[in-house]
Input
Amino acid sequence: MLKTTPFHERTSALCVSHAWRRWAGHLVASSYELTHEREYHVIRAAAALFDVSPLCKYLVRGRDAARLLDLIVTRNVQKAAVGQVLYTPWCDHAGKVLDDGTVARLDETTFRLTSAEPNLRWLQDNAAGLDVDIADISGSIAALSLQGPMAGAILQSLGAPSLKYFRIAPASLRGIAVTVSRTGYTGDLGFEIWVDAANALPLWDAVMEAGRPYGIMPTGLLALDMARIEAGLMLIDVDYVPANKALIPSQLSSPYELDLAWTVNLEKERFIGRDALAREKAVGPAWQFVGIELEWNSLERLYDEVGLATRLPSAAWRMSVPLYDSGEQVGYCTSGAWSPLLKKYIALAHVPTRWAALGTALEMEMTVEHRRKRTVARVVKKPFFDPPRKRA
Output
């Protein structure tokens, strides 16, 4: 049976579309209105409020808490300051990515790990012999994500502290004890608010009331999917297969192959997958995770040939779409969308390193009136959208 989040009493009343989807065993809104168009635009123009409670959340405490997390993830947790949040993947012993998420240092000996998949057993198995306590707090902590250019002003009106990018701090919002982190999954100015599940509804009401003068809207996962593609952010089970689910070697990906080389700290003496990643760095990754932009004139010609105006996807798509060079398949896209903001058709893709250079000309498969065609595409820089306000 699907679970509901601590905010469901509010989100269900607002979900006019009755469009729901599963996320980590929970029921969450795909869109609140009949279409997600306004919800997408509010992310980029005002403030969008997402219920992100289904994220897996673990509290790691004790003298060896930093040591355990430093062993598991590729970032250097021991050097993280109190109040710092690290985005990081973690790997198996072959250096292949199992999951990705955040590690927040709440105090010297207390951390919170968030992830897309359950990771309690992985944490426990690697904690043998360490002085550490691991608690699954996924159900007891509710979470909201407030994203968009007005997000900071809304939180300031509620009394939240000013935060630097990827920092976290305790706060009291209208008398409700929370922690606020300057993080998110939209590539925009954004914050995430963490609260005891018992205080979820008062928090929702307070944020919505404060946000009304700024154009706040509850926003679902369809709009979030478009925003995260614009931000060049990958999604587990869509843009990569976690190592513990891969059935054949070609489904595996390393951090280097997912454009996450910046998260791998080989200066650490020891972490899971380190030796394999050191070997891979020495020879270079076989694949790269890149941005793809479709050429409009080429796309328009394909539809003109059958007497149709160019048709664009109204929502982000998640599927494997072949990429070609000179008639030979060389890679594949994993998710894509028409960006209303950028006025571009963009996609995220895996290509062998030989074809990963910026500007490389490729072709992407398109189905036009039931026939497979190819449209001109090229490799471009990620993220597609990267506003200065995100880090300001």
Q: What stands out?
A: The first strand starts at residue 3 and ends at 4. The chain has a mean pLDDT of 98. DSSP finds nine helices and 20 strands in the chain.
